[in-house]
Write a structure and sequence with these properties.
Largest sheet: 3 strands, mixed
Shape: elongated
Helix content: 40-55%
Order of helices and strands: EEHEEEHEHEHHHEEEHH
Strand content: 5-15%
CATH class of one domain: Alpha Beta
Number of strands: 10
CATH superfamily of one domain: Exopolyphosphatase. Domain 2
CATH architecture of one domain: 2-Layer Sandwich
Radius of gyration: 39 Å
């Protein structure tokens, strides 16, 4: 979308071309829901085909590569319960998440096949915020300049740690103040998902140097709603919402209003100057009247007071 944020017809320099797209269903939290449904369906199908009992009791849990080592959890969908235990294999988690990039079951949505505006990675700069920032900073403490090998190594190390160790680190204050139990539990999954979305979904090169994860840009919090506002304002100025004839009439009115406002301004200045002149003339007139009054007083004193004094001389 191309839109103008200029305030009138003469100001056309604020032209922007913006590409905005929302990939619904591919955010971290919703992706986790889809992942759990995938694990449930695949495990129950596997049990049925091979007469197995995987995940049906705490003693025989499904070993989830996307949860930290030793973390025990249960997944419940439609009256079915699956017992899981984390095995902390980040690379296996990345591979397991690949089908989720194609969208949910029965949906045509796809992050891999969806249209995305062409990107010149040799001449571009990107900021990752929201989940991208939390995923790199809250636990891994890698917020800022993104480096794929460094991020991969830190994510693998985190996933391979036992849940008890991660909990001790959390209570010891080794993670960000924004980190909580939910972040601790799903950091392994979300780091693998973010990696897949970034490099498989959006095709960012593994050696791309100009991506920063951030919460603030120029001391302002960055949110996806800013992109939505930019998209909504593509019809600004409001004259673009009207028909061409109405827009032309509106532009003519703006020009007339511009001329009228200038005449009004000069008229106000003239009135103010005249008022100041009249006020000065009035002050001058008052001053002259006071001088004449003072002169009359002196003459009266000279004629009355001085002769009386001469009559008293012996």
């Amino acid at each position: 979308a191309e839109f103008n944020l200029g305030c009138d017809v003469q100001h056309t320099g604020h032209m922007y071309r913006v590409y905005v797209n929302t990939f619904l269903g591919f955010g971290g939290n919703f992706a986790r829901q889809r992942y759990e449904e995938l694990v449930l369906n695949q495990t129950f199908v596997y049990n049925r085909l091979h007469s197995q009992q995987t995940g049906l009791s705490p003693k025989m849990p499904f070993l989830d590569p996307c949860l930290p080592m030793g973390l025990e959890d249960t997944l419940m969908r439609g009256g079915q319960t699956l017992y899981v235990r984390g095995r902390g294999d980040w690379q296996a988690c990345v591979k397991l998440l690949q089908p989720l990039l194609e969208g949910s079951n029965g949906s045509q949505a796809s992050l891999v096949g969806a249209y995305k505006a062409p990107i010149d990675f040799s001449n571009s700069e990107f900021y990752g915020f929201s989940e991208f920032f939390y995923c790199t900073e809250d636990v891994l403490r890698l917020g800022g300049q993104y480096n794929a090998p460094t991020f991969t190594s830190a994510a693998q190390e985190y996933c391979s740690q036992r849940w008890e160790v991660l909990t001790q680190r959390f209570h010891g204050g080794l993670y960000s103040a924004h980190a909580d139990q939910h972040r601790l539990k799903y950091q392994c999954f979300k780091s693998a998902w973010m990696y897949q979305v970034l490099h498989q979904g959006f095709q960012f090169p593994l050696d791309y140097p100009s991506l920063r994860t951030a919460q603030l840009v120029y001391d302002r919090e960055v949110q996806w709603t800013l992109g939505a506002i930019l998209y909504k304002t593509r019809f600004l100025p409001l004259r673009d919402l009207r028909q061409e004839s109405i827009r032309q009439a509106h532009a003519s009115w703006l020009r007339l209003s511009f001329v009228y406002n200038h005449y009004l301004f000069f008229a106000c200045i003239l009135v103010v100057v005249l008022a100041i002149v009249l006020y000065l003339l009035r002050l001058r007139r008052i001053h002259r009247r006071q001088l004449r009054l003072a002169q009359h007083t002196l003459l009266w004193l000279d004629k009355v007071v001085v002769p009386l004094g001469q009559g008293n001389v012996p």
